[in-house]
Backbone:
């Protein structure tokens, strides 16, 4: 069980993950895919996302 911001994040049966919780977004990814976060950021920038 992880607390993030003002909400509780409950996980079950998952291993080797990274959880990043902000006020307006939640990212859950496996540790071996963390380098792909740059791809997500690039796509969000291209779409001029409100989450950046």
Residues:
């Amino acid at each position: 069980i992880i607390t993030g911001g003002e909400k509780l994040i409950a996980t079950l049966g998952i291993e080797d993950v990274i959880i990043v919780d902000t006020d307006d977004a939640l990212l859950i990814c496996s540790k071996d895919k963390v380098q792909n976060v740059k791809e997500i950021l690039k796509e969000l920038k291209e779409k001029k996302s409100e989450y950046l």
About this structure: The helical segments are 37-46. The mean pLDDT is 82. Residues 28 and 42 are 17 Å apart (CA to CA). The chain has one domain: 2-46.
